[in-house]
């Protein structure tokens, strides 16, 4: 048979392709039924009894506080009854929002950096492409243990060791950061392009040169992006950890809410909102720069 007599199959039209689609309506119906049953079962365990009077008062008070914050507290103005300290040679009030925000940033920053550095060797030891599987399983269980325990529980544990201070917040943030950052690091290590390492090996490069030229350029952008993302999370967690005495702006915030000092609550929340918007803008710029090169 000559090549001219061989006819290519006629391409299918859109209608014919649609008619030959897989018939899986029963699978989708089963999924919808399962999700509906789970939602019904979950809703049966939630009892709505309306909004408590105290809750509505708190909500209204927060709105009033945001509308009319305490500007002396928000700007950190020094008065006769406030204690002061020096930061970079500048005298600030320890009760003002700028100092408390600075302390919150310091807790989140130190916790993120320490956790990110400690996560590097742990992530390599937890990757079965780098170490034997039994070694990787041990460190994977360690990471799972860290991720399982909530940050508030870690704070309650460490506060017994270090006492109620900002150092407790740093230790807690460091330990909690290891769990998430190591998980992301492992994914970046597993996605390494092995062909680059094979090319360097064929060129006669030693182990250090392969790490320097083949591994680090691939993983460093992912590592930095992961650390920045974790810093965003730690900033929010640092406020929560302050409630249990781990430093930061959380402790005075919850005290003011409890005592219904709404203008002071508005000052703390106003400062947190501005700070989070600024950090989000800066971190987005850095991540975009890392992505685009």
Give the CATH topology. Answer: MetI-like fold
CA-atom Rg in angstroms: 27 Å
Q: Which sequence of strands runs across the widest sheet?
A: 1-2
SS-based structural class?
A: mainly alpha
Order of helices and strands: HHHHEEHHHHHHHH
Distance between the termini: 56 Å
The global form is extended
- Biggest beta sheet attributes: 2 strands, antiparallel
Low-confidence stretches: none
Mean pLDDT: 80
Instruction: Figure out the total of helices.
Output: 12
Can you tell me the CATH class? Mainly Alpha
Structure, described:
It is a single chain. With 293 residues, the chain is mainly alpha-helical. It has a single domain, classed as MetI-like fold (Orthogonal Bundle), CATH 1.10.3720.10. The protein has twelve helices and two strands; from the N terminus they run ααααββαααααααα. The chain has helices at 14-19, 25-44, 53-67, 71-75, 97-125, 133-148, 151-162, 166-190, 194-202, 207-241, 250-258, 262-292; strands at residues 84-87, 90-93. The chain has a two-stranded antiparallel ribbon. Helix 3 (53-67) packs across helix 12, helix 5 (97-125) packs antiparallel against helix 10 (207-241) and helix 8 crosses helix 10. The longest helix is centred in the C-terminal third of the chain and has 35 residues, at 207-241.
